[in-house]
Amino acid sequence: MVEYRQQHSEAWLKHFAHRGHPDARPLASGVEGAVYRLGDGTVAKVWTGRPPADFDLTRQVYADIARSRPPFATPEVLDAEQVEGVLVTYERELPGAPIGTDSADGPAPRELPAGVIDAVLEVLRGLAAVPATDAMRRLTVQGDDRPLWQGRQRFSDALADLVERAGRRSGTVLAAHVPDLAKQTDRTVRALRALPDTADTVIHGDLVPPNIHVDGQGHPVAVLDFGFFTTAGDPAFEAAVTAAVWDMYGPHARAHTETLTRVFAAELRYEPETLALYQTAYALTTYDLFSADGSDGHFHWCAGLLNDDA
To answer: Can you give the residue ranges of the Aminoglycoside phosphotransferase domain (predicted)?
Structure first.
């Protein structure tokens, strides 16, 4: 699998020491950047991957989420700077520890613990209680070239537009792995446009295990790393994507997706067909975000999901 995490460097440790943080240490890394613990209750994120196109907008979204007081902590930006063209944000360090490892780093157990499922349900319910705001609707999801909601009043129509745009990016590569891709894309777009109106809420869009922190009893105390597919939308989309990406690469990934989809449909009262539709739309809109030539694991995961759906 191709590695797309940003790398830590001694140069940044020296930079933070110069700013008065001699105890700075690498903490985590992801697609968008690398995070350093500064030792004073704050962290620094170096956005060497995909920095927010409009950081002030991202900061406003963080404030909008916090204003709704979800039952767990969320990111809070305290300061920001540009260092040789690279955005660095200083944020409050969030409590707890990751509920699990990313499936790219190690397989999940055969049976998902009931406590883990309960914690994820609590996070989904908490986010579904955060109403959508204008700032959320002005965000651009990763890989796209415009705000997701631009020119649209409904999430399902905005998502259908994105499916069509994403197909024009590297669709010929995906078509080599997914028979009848054009028909599947057309069917997905039509189904999205036919969905009923929903009460829109914040969408995190990347609720993988490292992005949910829990306390010693397994209760969620923080949700981090908004930005990959953060927007305003149908909370059923959040549930659908979470069920699909919780375990993407482990030996029991397919069974875990089926289990979580079934549980979320029952507990949150979402239509299973809607969850399946949103999972297909997610694959059709994110398949080329890490490479345009199909050389990465995420691409093959998306192709596999689409083939299963077909």
So the answer is: 24-248
Could you list the residue range(s) of the whole structural domain that residue 281 is in?
A: 97-309
Contact 274, 236 (CB under 8 A): yes
Same domain, 167 and 238: yes
How many angstroms separate the CA atoms of 97 and 120, rounded?
14
Per the structure, the count of domains in the chain is: 2
211 DSSP assignment: G
**Rg (the chain; Cα; Å):** 19
29, two tokens: 């890394």
- Scan for tokens 């989809």, then name that residue: 261
Which stretches in the chain have pLDDT values below 70?
Answer: 1-5, 49-53
Residues 6+ apart with CB under 8 A from 207: 120, 123, 124, 223, 238, 241, 242, 245, 246
Q: Which residues contact 127 (CB under 8 A, 6 or more apart)?
A: 70, 201, 202, 203, 204, 223, 235, 238
| Residues 253 and 134 grouped into a single domain | yes
**Separation of alpha carbons 94 and 41, rounded Å:** 8
Check: pTM over 0.70? Answer yes or no: yes
Does 1 reside within a domain? no
Q: Are residues 72 and 150 in the same domain?
A: no
| Residue 58 near residue 31, CB atoms below 8 Å | no
**Residue with tokens 């999801």, as numbered in its chain:** 141
- What's the CA gap between 208 and 301, in Å, rounded? 15
With beta carbons less than 8 A apart as the criterion, state whether 47 and 86 touch. yes
- E strand or H helix that includes residue 44: strand 42-46
